[in-house]
Design a protein that fits this description.
By secondary structure, this protein is mainly β. Among the domains are: 112 residues, Arc Repressor Mutant, subunit A; 263 residues, YVTN repeat-like/Quinoprotein amine dehydrogenase (Methylamine Dehydrogenase, Chain H), CATH 2.130.10.10. Helix content is 11%, strand content 43%. The chain contains seven helices and 54 strands. Strands 9, 30, 31, 32, 53 and 54 form a six-stranded antiparallel β-sheet that branches. Strands 4-3-2-1-8 form a five-stranded antiparallel β-sheet, with helices on one face. A four-stranded antiparallel β-sheet has the order 10-11-12-13, with no helix packed on it. Helix 1 packs across helix 3.
Length: 722
């Protein structure tokens, strides 16, 4: 029984809030509060039983059916955090929702109920114009029609009544049919296929019999395959640390095509083929950046190759020969390569692209295989994942980021480009999905991350936790003697005092990177179709836009300027803008092409460090140091080849003599320090497990703050799609 059909038929009121069960809305002082469906269900279950302990198992039964898989602990914790955010509540100092250990939750605020006034139409009250009893006596007398006219009149009335009964009956049957048949979003089923938490990519054979996935465990990576419905796995490849996400079954299911990074540079991947049940791998071709897609006849495959500021869509015969360019997509970021999809009729290839200078920037193209002609099918401000065509070629399943920041599955129709939501849950789907030929099953990855803030006076020691529980702390910086923490699970920025109390600032899922700037906080946010540089007061008020096309901001030590990365058409630039607003000015530019990460200014304000690609065609990540007084590049350093993608955390040591960044290796993330004087970089922490999401030093240099935790990723099967 759904929650809406239960006995909750009266409005629930607590403080300035009201939950209306008929409109299914939460209102504060009469104004609708934006809340997702799952958190709203939790509120209804808790507030309808004030003062009572509601067990986590009860909430699970109310939120998900028994045949639906979801990461329950993460899903419930996320939903409760979002509900608390909507209510401006706190787990540490609750006004409404109290956590009772690991057992469940209790609604602690007084709740009153009130009747919901039904509409006049629902009561069926007669209006004067309806000809009720009162109007009958006031009606003016009219002459009676003759007998023949009366007879014709009743024939017409009888025919009209009969017709109305037929229409009503047909409509009722149609309505009953529609109610009996659940929608696709209600019918789909999620089944967990792995439980090791270490999956990195997955694929399903065309006939749906086999599933393969890449397992990463520290330095060891392995390629595994199992028959659907079985638990025993075949280890196709073992102990290969260079295996990289991007996996595809051959059309006949007899081979697996996978990516392996080159030994000299993890940014370069080669395509290999190996028999499905094990054997010797064979190199097919070089420089492939994502999972390939086979043509319907299985004779060719399509793949993507990032080339700095543009993307190549290429075709090759199944053995790797006859490699040729099909289309060139300009202004395409190599960081957005997700994989392509070949249509069932063989005439089109769907390609998602992030166009760095377009608004909106995310575009799903269809490319004609006959001549390479490009046609934009769908555009979005949100990231778009790998498209997989459904049978018939009239639509495809595509992972698309939602307004909450998680990825859900959608369908995009062809040629209309109309999007419809396929999943609507608290899961976060990876962009690299795969699908069976009949379109009935999809494999995807679901990830969950739990991280908390730790403080240590000495790098390399465990330190003490400053936050606890099922949190997702992914950013940290200091505001004077206070600590600001980005809690992505709750969608909040926490400003923590030294006594442990805190103020919470609600955030939009579009708000990304943050940096302190005197009385302000500067941050980037994806708004109005572009990444904007914003400024707000330290209490969250006074939000103001400063610049567009920005990311990775940092403030000058005197608090007068914000510096940020600007995605230039030829070379990416570092710009600066006054904290009071005004025209942004170019300060420096990348020595080659991109600046894939954050920038950092030394404590004395004399130097600026930034990452850059060492070569536009053959990217190798490097560190550059610029003199702030001239903008000249004064030092460069090599970065370990297994630092891939974006350098999300870049800091200076307290004494300003070294640059620090994070590196994942041997199953753990550690902080690496590169001395300005030269010499090899070395770790300053020595964790043997776990992941560092961000780190920063307190202004006095006495404590190192680290957002640290674990990410768990497993393969799930999405079925009942047709």
């Amino acid at each position: 029984m759904s929650l809406r059909t239960q006995s909750l038929q009266r409005a629930l009121r607590f403080e300035t809030f009201e939950l209306d069960p008929l409109s299914w809305e939460l209102r504060k002082n009469g104004i609708k509060v934006k809340v997702q469906e799952q958190p709203l269900k939790i509120l209804a279950m808790l507030a309808s039983r004030p003062g009572e302990l509601v067990l986590r198992d009860e909430l699970r039964e109310g939120l998900w059916s028994n045949d639906t898989f979801v990461n329950f602990d993460r899903g419930l914790n996320t939903a409760v955090n979002r509900l608390r955010s909507a209510l401006d509540d706190s787990a540490q100092n609750p006004r409404f929702i109290e956590t009772v250990g690991s057992r469940g939750y209790r609604f602690i605020a007084p709740v009153t109920t009130c009747d919901i006034e039904p509409s006049r139409e629902s009561l069926g009250t007669a209006r004067p114009e309806d000809g009720g009893a009162a109007s009958k006596f006031n009606r003016r007398a009219e002459p009676e029609p003759n007998t023949s006219v009366r007879r014709v009149y009743w024939v017409i009335v009888s025919a009209g009544v009969a017709l109305a009964m037929v229409v009503t009956t047909l409509f009722g049957l149609r309505l009953m049919k529609n109610r009996a048949e659940p929608s696709l979003i209600e019918r789909i089923k999620l089944t967990k296929l792995t439980d090791n938490g270490k999956a990195a990519t997955a694929a399903i054979s065309r006939d749906g019999r086999y599933v393969a996935y890449l397992l990463r465990d520290g330095l060891s990576s392995s390629l595994r395959m199992r028959q659907l419905g079985a638990t025993q796995e075949t280890h196709v490849l073992e102990n290969d640390r260079l295996l990289y996400p991007g996996l595809t079954f051959s059309p006949d299911g007899g081979s697996l095509y996978f990516l392996r990074a080159t030994s000299s540079d993890a940014l370069f991947k080669d395509l290999f083929q190996v028999p499905t049940f094990g054997g010797s791998p064979r190199k097919v071709t070089s420089n492939v950046d994502a999972a390939i897609a086979f043509s319907p006849d299985g004779r060719q495959f399509a793949y993507e190759r990032g080339m700095g500021s543009f993307l190549e869509l290429r075709l090759a015969d199944v053995d790797g020969t006859n490699d040729r360019l099909l289309a060139k997509l300009d202004d395409a970021s190599p960081d957005s390569i997700q994989g392509v999809g070949w249509s069932p009729d063989g005439k089109l290839i769907a390609v998602p692209v992030w166009r760095m200078h377009a608004i909106p920037g995310n575009v799903l193209y269809v490319v004609k295989t006959a001549n390479g002609t490009l046609q934009p099918l769908y555009t979005s401000n949100r990231e778009i994942g790998r498209p997989r065509w459904l049978p018939g070629g009239k639509s495809m399943v595509v992972p698309i980021q939602t307004e909450t920041g998680s990825n859900q599955l959608w369908t995009v129709s062809y040629p209309e480009g109309k999007v419809s939501r396929l999943t609507n849950d608290l899961a976060d789907y990876d962009f690299g999905i795969d699908i069976t030929q009949d379109g009935r099953m999809i494999t995807a990855l679901q990830s969950s991350a739990i991280s908390n803030l730790w403080a240590t006076p000495t790098p390399g020691t465990q330190g003490e936790p400053l936050t606890q529980g099922e949190q997702r702390m992914i950013g940290v910086f200091s505001i004077g003697d206070k600590i600001a923490i980005l809690n992505r699970a709750a969608g909040e920025l926490w400003i923590m005092n030294s006594d442990g109390t805190r103020k919470t600032i609600p955030l939009d899922a579009n708000d990304v990177t943050f940096s302190p700037c005197g009385p302000y906080i500067v941050f980037t946010s994806f708004r109005n179709g572009t990444q904007e540089l914003m400024r707000m007061n330290n209490d969250g008020s006074g939000v103001q836009a400063l610049a567009t096309g920005a990311w990775g901001p940092v403030c000058s030590p005197d608090g007068k300027f914000a510096y940020y990365v600007f995605v230039g058409k030829e070379r990416w630039k570092i710009r600066r803008v006054s904290i009071d607003g005004g025209t942004a000015l170019d300060f420096a530019e990348s020595p080659v092409q991109q600046i894939p990460g954050h920038i950092a200014i030394s404590p004395d304000g004399k130097l600026l460090a930034f990452p850059f690609d060492g070569d536009a065609v053959s990217p190798t990540l490097k560190l550059g140091v610029i003199a702030m007084d001239s903008g000249a590049l004064v030092k460069t350093f090599d970065v370990a080849s297994n630092v891939t993608g974006t350098m999300a955390a870049l800091r200076w040591s307290i004494d300003g003599r070294a640059v620090q960044y994070i590196l994942s290796d041997e199953g753990a993330t550690n902080i690496i320090q590169q001395p300005l004087s030269g010499g090899p970089a070395h770790p300053i922490t020595r964790y043997t497990s776990g992941q560092i999401f961000d780190f920063n030093w307190t202004p006095d240099g006495k404590r190192l703050l680290i957002c640290r935790g674990e990410t768990s990723t497993d393969v799930v099967l999405v079925s009942n799609l047709q």
